[in-house]
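[agent] plan:
  1. take the single chain provided in the ticket
  2. run structure prediction with default settings
  3. attach C-alpha cells to the ticket
  4. add a short note for the reviewer (M.T.)
[agent] executing step 1
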Amino acid sequence: MTAAILELRDVRRSYDSVVAVDGVSVELAEGEFLSFLGPSGSGKTTTLQMIAGLVAPTSGEIFLKGQPLNPLPPYRRNIGVVFQNYALFPHMTVAKNIAFPLEMRHVPRDEIEQRVARALALVGLAQHGSRLPSQMSGGQQQRVALARAMVFEPPLLLMDEPLGALDKKLREQMQLEIKQLHRNLGMTIIYVTHDQEEALTMSDRIAVFNNGRIEQIGLPSEIYEHPNTRFVANFIGETNLFPGRVLEVADGYCRIDGGGLELRARNSGTIKKGANVYVAVRPERTLLSGPHTVAEADENSVTGTISETVYLGRSWKYVVKAGGTLVTAVQQIGSRLDTSFAIGDAVSLQWKIEDATAVYDPSA
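[agent] step 2 finished; step 3 output follows
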C-alpha cells in the first residue's frame, strides 16, 4: 500500500453514556476506495462525520496529508462530501450547484466554467446544466451531487449512503458509474453503506463496523472468504455457523467438536485449543449428494434431511436438517454436479476444509 493520505488514531465519540465510536484506528492510501460497512448504529456514519468535521471526536486524532484535522472547521478541511439526500440548492441550476464550491474558493470565472463543464461531462450530464434539481430524476440529482463534490478536486471524497434512495436497478447502475469514475480519476473515497453487496462490488477494501468498532478490515475477497468473527461471517452474505469447541490446532487449521460432529476448519487467526468457536461455511461452498456418499480426506461431511427447497432462477437453495442444526446449501442449476432434491430426501452434505473458517464470537 502507498503512503497513507488519511489516518485515524484511536478515535472515539460518546454521547453522555452512549459510546457511538469506540477506538477506531485506520489508514487510507491515496487513490483507495474504502467502504465503511455495518448495520444502523454501528458507528460508521459518525466516523465519517468526524472526518468531515461535522462531529467532534471525544478523543483521538485524525490526520489528512499529515495535517491534524481536529482543530479545523469543515470548510477548511477541503473534503468533498456526498449525502444520501443530495443536499442540492433547489433555487440554483445544476451548473450553479456545481459551481458553488468553486465560487466559495474564489476560483476565477473562466476556470469555473471550464471545471463545471468538465464535471458535467464526467457524470453524463453535459446538456443539463441549465436545469433545476426538481426537473431531474433521483439518479440525475445524485450525479449532480457527485459532480459538485468532485469539482474542486478534493484530496478526499466522503460518501454517506449516497445511493440509498434509489431503486435497485438504478442503484446498481450508479455503483458501476462511481466505480468507473474512481478508477479513471484516481479519487480517494470513503463510502458508507449498510449494503453488503454494494460494498463487495465497489471497494478496494472494506472496514466492517459493529458496536462502534472495526471488527475486520481487508480486501472484499478476504472479508467474504476469511471472516475473523462470527459477526463478520454472518453479516457479509449468507453463511452457515456450527458452534463447537476446539480440540486441536495445527498447521493453520482447527479440529473442532461440533456437538457430535467432528469438523475441521481454517484458523481465522489466534484461535487456541479449548476455545469456543463457530465454524463458518458459505452455502455455495457446500455440495449435496446421496446419503451414502463417502467424504474425501479434505472434506467435512454431515448427513440430514431436506426440510425446504427454494428456486432462485440460476440455482436451488436447500435447507437441510442435520441433527439439531439447519444447514443451507446452494446448488447451481445446470452445473456438472447439479442434482434435484425434494423435501424429505435423505442427503449427505460435504464441503472442503479450506472453505470452512473457525471464528470467535467476541460478544459471547
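[agent] step 4 note for reviewer: Helices lie at 44-52, 94-104, 109-122, 138-150, 168-185, 196-202, 220-225, 230-235.
[agent] ticket updated
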